Amino acid sequence: MPALPYSITISNEERTYLRSLIKTRTIQAQVVDRARMLLWKSEAKTDKAIADGLGVSVNTVRRCIGRYLNNGINLAIFDDERSGRPVEVTDDAKSWIVSIACQKPCDLGYAAELWTLAALHKHIQMHAEEAGYPRLKTVTKPWLQKYLKKMDIKPFKVKYYLERKDPDFENKMHDVLLVYKQVEMQLDDDGNIIARLAAEKLGFIYVDTGAMYRAMALYFIRKGIASGDEAAVQAACGDIDISIEYQDGEQMVILNGENVNAFIRTEQVSMATSDIARYPAVRAKLLDIQRNLAAVKDIIMDGRDIGTCVLPDAETKVYLTASADERARRRYKEQKERGIACDIEMLKQDIIKRDRQDMDRETSPLKQAEDAVLLDTSDLSIEDAVNAVINIYSSKKAAG
Hints:
The chain is of the alpha/beta class. A hairpin with a 2-residue loop joins strand 3 and strand 4 (250-255). Helices cover 53% and strands 10% of the residues.
């Protein structure tokens, strides 16, 4: 093996990344050891001192350092993919990769206008766990390149959505949507997939209002503002800009210029959302946005006060629910698929607590509108629930 330098130089960003890996309890011990090798080598420790400190051979240390020098930080830490062992990445994780690839790096805090494959790969590795996709920490650049090629996305040549979309898009939408209708759905946390699929079948736009509240909760969490401090929350509302954009039919929630779809589905955000949704200042902030969306498009809008507050005159209202046990089971399955450790009983208690908070709040409490149709999905498949929603809408429409 060629002689290696006495020390290596790593960036501050790489140093932070390596330290975060060392602190992670759910990652392989081998990965933690390799992270320590790189950190200690950057501090000019000898290969023998590193090997003795970790209980490994000197050659193991040298292989790790050599891989770093030749291939970069991630290939030094994580094993290459091997034939016969395909990378297991969920559809949600793949969607998150695509959403990152189709954003400008400069909008995510980098200096560059366009991604290189190396920069995109590094960003995904470093932010995967924060986004709820820890499995992506171990994907390699060849896998990423292969997946982006399959999706016909070249990060370094991306023509961003707003630049490449049909210039007559808005006019065509106006021609199609001459008569505006709104289908409102009052949902629990697990019902938004039903609303989304029903919207697709009806040819409507799907609007997840809960995601807007989640984006605001995320802002307060990032700023260290306690969700129970109404005065501080109200004072910060003026610093928040929330907007909704659509890319290939998918709703993107934009928080102060950042697409935060990947960061708003954690349990921490869920509980903070229930807290801040009680405050009149928060609800007033989002009310006009939601009503404006309904005024110009055929939509299915889901949320916890749509039929009673946001769209009291909606053409069709569906109060969609399920038992706490069933909702906990669905959430548990969803979190496990994302690689997030969770306890099903704790999820159930969180669901019950959030329902109680939302039902008891003074401002726009969760309740079934008088003219809403109750649909209990506890024993229904997703397909059956979607068809039931469409049948309710069709019956209302036929009745005039």
